[in-house]
Design goal:
mainly alpha, 4 helices, elongated
Length: about 80
């Protein structure tokens, strides 16, 4: 059985986490821009805003999983239990 420590190197995980954080900032900027355009009669902007918000939530879940994998890959299982 291959453990996560064998499957992923910490440097690869760190690079992936950095990309995810960058992507998260891009989504935040998108949400911020869309929030200025929201009004009662602008359903299209509301739908775009909802999709961007969903995209951000999904990205946060993926980031949590990546950070958990990084913690496990460096052998900090006690910390992982607290995380």
């Amino acid at each position: 059985m291959t453990t996560i420590n064998q499957a992923f190197k910490p440097s690869m995980l760190l690079q992936d986490i950095a990309k995810q954080i960058s992507s998260g900032w891009n989504i935040i900027n998108k949400i911020e821009g869309l929030s200025y355009g929201l009004s009662g009669g602008n359903d299209y902007s509301g739908d775009e805003y909802d999709m961007a918000e969903l995209e951000f939530k999904s990205m946060l879940e993926r980031l949590y999983i990546s950070i958990s994998a990084l913690i496990e890959s460096i052998g900090m299982t006690e910390f992982l239990a607290l995380f």
